[in-house]
Design goal:
five-stranded mixed sheet; four-stranded mixed sheet
Length: 331
């Protein structure tokens, strides 16, 4: 039984930073091919060197993030004249710089990592390493200790964000005005579905199963009686999620009624057949509670973004274009 929360599922700390930076914060990057005469250094932030391997770890996570958001098709997308690869490379670089600049403010806000924080960072580093293929490890070429340090940086980053935004006070008047303006669109997004899904590799078999389900057969009993060979094995899952999450997962406008059975939905994994077990539309009280947390998080993020922009403006950022121009995507 799978439950997706508002932000999705299985988000790592490093990925959560990518998600928080929803738009590019502009800052000036000085090209410095001659000033940084080191093929292992991709940039400096206020004179402090950042290795190419560290950047490659950020690129690895940004690439995974894009793949999970849009699948393979996202790499064919044009982003206002930029290729998806260039967007991912720049986002990874900007995220890395933001983390570096923010972590440098830890002493100002009197935040540090506990032994527990460091132990958790180490565990996350081990998980990150375990997620890589041997080819990816060779391309990233980063030491285990450096991965642990980067995971500690991401943990410290979040602590600084919390310190910067701790005094934020929600304006009830502003929130109520926002709620009244956006509640119907948000009601649709926060409509919660409980669904049963079958994933079938073969389109023809998926069509046959869909028809039999629509004729009244039960999901589980159908799979007990339907003969499948090893190449066409299916499985049943129950998922609970909001509409906006399901829109993304299945790449459709997920607008179905309780009891409805869908036609096969084509995805990269195969063909999904979905039964709508339950559909729950939130009332105003429920919706307000859901939106309030999201609104407050957004306002806090804006408070932090304003502070970060000022830090960035006061920071000298230099990128080694000789190294930058050799960067290739991680498969």
């Amino acid at each position: 039984y799978i439950i997706f929360d508002e932000a999705g599922v299985y988000m790592k700390k490093l990925k959560s930073i990518l998600a928080m930076l929803l738009c590019f914060l502009l800052f000036t990057i000085t090209a410095c091919s001659e000033q940084i005469d080191n093929e292992n250094i991709i940039a400096t932030v206020d004179g402090k060197a950042i290795s190419k391997s560290e950047y490659m770890l950020y690129l690895y996570e940004a690439t995974r993030d894009f793949n999970e958001i849009g699948g393979n098709d996202i790499w064919e997308t044009d982003f206002d004249g930029q290729s998806a690869e260039n967007v991912v490379k720049e986002r990874a670089f900007i995220t890395m710089v933001h983390v570096k600049v923010t972590v440098d403010k830890a002493s100002k806000y009197k935040v540090s990592l506990s032994d527990k924080d460091k132990s958790e960072a180490k565990q996350e580093g081990d998980t990150e390493l375990a997620s890589m293929t041997e080819e990816q490890k060779n391309i990233i070429s980063i030491s285990q200790q450096d991965i642990y340090r980067i995971m500690e940086d991401t943990s410290l980053y979040r602590k600084v964000v919390e310190a910067v935004t701790k005094d934020y006070q929600l304006s009830e008047a502003d929130f109520n005005a926002y709620f009244e303006k956006n509640k119907e669109a948000q009601r649709t997004a926060y409509t919660q579905y409980t669904i049963s899904t079958i994933l079938i590799p073969d389109q023809q078999i998926a069509q046959q199963i869909s028809q039999r389900l629509k004729q009244g057969e039960e999901f589980q009993s159908l799979f007990q009686t339907y003969e499948m060979n090893s190449q066409n094995e299916g499985f049943v899952e129950t998922i609970q999620a909001y509409k906006d999450r399901l829109d993304t997962v299945f790449n459709i406008d997920f607008n179905f009624e309780q009891g409805q059975i869908t036609d096969p939905i084509s995805t990269e994994e195969g063909y999904f057949i979905i039964h709508i077990d339950q559909k729950s539309i939130p009332d105003d009280v429920q919706l307000k509670e859901l939106i309030k947390a999201e609104y407050e998080a957004s306002m806090k993020q804006q408070v932090f973004t304003d502070e970060l922009n000022q830090w960035i403006a006061d920071t000298e950022i230099e990128r080694n274009d000789t190294v930058w121009n050799t960067i290739e995507m991680i498969p």
